[in-house]
Amino acid sequence: MSASDFGGDRSQASHVRELARALGRPGDEGGAGHRVSVYGRRCSPDAHGRTRLASGATLFNLTAGPARPLPDDLLLEHVRELADELRRRWSGAGRPDVVHAHGWIGGLAACAVAGELEIPFAQTFHGLAATEARAGRTVHPARARLERAIGREAGAVLARCTDEAAVAVRMGVSRDAVRIVPPGVDAERFSEAGPAMPHGDRERLTVVARNLADGAAETALRALRHVPDAELAVAGGPDREELENDASVHRLTLLAKELHVADRVIFLGRVPRRSLPRLLRTTRLALNLAPAQPAPTAALEAMACGVPAVVTPVGTNADAVLDGVTGLHVPAGRPRQIGLAVRGLLAEETTRRGYAIAAADRARSRHGWDRIADETERQYQRLVPEPELEAEAAEAEAPEALPEEPAPVVARVGDESDSDLVGSLI
Known about the structure:
alpha/beta
């Protein structure tokens, strides 16, 4: 279940689609052969009520509010409608064995209905309020409280990286419930072999940013001063036709002129996901330099194309990129130090090539969707024990069972108000 727009390129929607396809892949194709139903909110009048994603995986678009993308504050007004749709579908023959929600708003609807119907429930947040706020993004004032309430109700909270797991524990989710399942990468689409975009003679550095105001592109521009023979391709922001009217692009263009690197910078605008491999195959090094909450799969997709990544070790970057093996970890906001590190790596072609080979291998072996689906399935199995094994275990342990002791009373600050808040929305 996700409230995300499945018609777009957002990382959350891509993650859910690819996970569903991998979980539903038939056994004769090496998959688990599960029947996967993906529930999303209809975000376009043209969206079909039911769409086949792949063998064993089907997307159902639920009607909840207007058929267009909505910001979080307006989307919350329609959570009750989402919950009603889920309750109707899950109360009869469509009852699932386990529910896995993605995103905090989709999680809010799914958590309430799964709890009511006593269905095992797992949650992936795809970013938490505390981290988003630290990255300078605007978050809904109720989001942190709702995330805490959802996380405490979930049988498993599947964090994408070590940083996210730590934040979940600090906000009040049981440590025993938190498991790390990293993001996946489509190793067939993102690969070393394939067509590439035209490019010149300069060695190309590439930034793929979901938000040009997050500091990554600015730091890369400042670092470029110290890499005199390289060019920088910046992918992100609005469509290419709208670049001239974008405030972030205008600010970065002026900065490039001030730094005397404007002739070595190319602003590409938003690059569709299907075109990213063609760009990455022209790239010597990928730069992912956001000081907080980086694009979750940008470094991974570059690695899968055989491109070492130079990253700030935060969020998914810290786990995905092995320092000195598949790329480099560099400090945030230190453009001179970053530039010198990039310049040194470009000068050591044997080292860079070794990183490239290791990067592609790690992306395929650690982050391929078959492995991510296997790890996710194991978490589902933790929530849904085999009935026969459970009965046998209970029977075997019964003769030696100890007298019951009163359960300890644990007071959790804010529990009552969190429950009230959730109840008022569902």
